[in-house]
Every structure is written in C-alpha cells, then in structure tokens.
Amino acid sequence: MPRPRKAVRDRALEDLLLAGLAEGVTLRKLCRRHHIAPGLVQRWRMEDKDFARRFALAREAGFEAIAEETLEIADDDAGDVTCKEKADGSVAVAKNPDNVARARLRVETRLKLLSKWAPGKYGESTELGQTQDWSERLAAARARVLKGR
Question: What was the pLDDT predicted at 124?
Fold first, then answer.
C-alpha cells in the first residue's frame, strides 16, 4: 500500500473527500484511496470552520446513505438459496444459511454504528408517538450537502 503523501489541500480534493463521505464511504477508505493521512483531514476540520461544517453535512448525508444501504442488503436475497444438480439429473434446492447470516451481520453492524454515530436520529426512541419522515430528512440532508459545495 502506498504511503500517505502530504496532500496539497485544494477545493477539488476536499470535494472528492466530501462527496465520498456523503455516499457513506468511510474517511479511512477515502484517505487510502487518495493517499492522504486521516489525521491530516482531521486537522483541516479543526483549522477551518467552513470545511468542518461541510464535513459534518457530508457525514450526515453519508449516514442516510448507510441507512438506505441496510435496506438494500436486507432486500437482496441473491445467494440465499443454492441449487445443485443431483446424479439422477434432478435439482436439489437448499437454503444457504451462511449468506443469510452474513447479510444479517452487515445490516446489524451498520445499524449499531449509526445508533452510536447519530443517536438522536438512529438510536432507539423512548418517546411514545415519535415519528420521523425519512424521505424529507434525506432530501434535506442532500440539499445541505449540495449547498455546501
């Protein structure tokens, strides 16, 4: 793996990082992709209030993307059943519990992280009658990220 380089900070690099965050990609993965030390990006956040604001908005949109991804994982039943041809030519259909367990782990991990990263939004609610309109919140988060660019 290439060693992180001293990145030349410019708006294009910032936009690449923030776009990735808004899509739910982790900062560590983005830093590896662009050969930047994660600590450098954290320093940019501490030193530049505008970048910190844009970073927070991108993270919020990224949380929405991760939440949507959990639905995609849960709805994807590809590989949940396997078909094998028997010696007599008939086909045996069998459940694939490993695939189901892996999908469950992926969903649960994302949901647990979301509940820690944004507990007010993704944590378990204790208030009765509390409702959340996810489509409106998603649209608002995306609008804030786009406005921040």
Answer: 77
**Which alpha helices (H) appear in 1-149, and where do they start and end?**
11-22, 27-34, 38-47, 49-75, 97-117, 119-122, 134-148
The closest of 53, 62, 32 to 7, measured between CA atoms, is 32
Task: Enumerate long-range contacts of 43-50, CB under 8 Å, 24 or more apart.
Answer: 44/9, 44/14
pTM of full prediction above 0.85:
no
Angle between helices 38-47 and 27-34 (to 10 degrees): 110
DSSP category for residue 125: P
**Domains contained in the chain, CATH given:** 11-123+132-148 (1.10.10.60)
The model's pLDDT over 18-59, given as tens digits with 9 standing for 90+, comes to 999 999 999 999 999 999 999 999 999 999 999 999 999 999
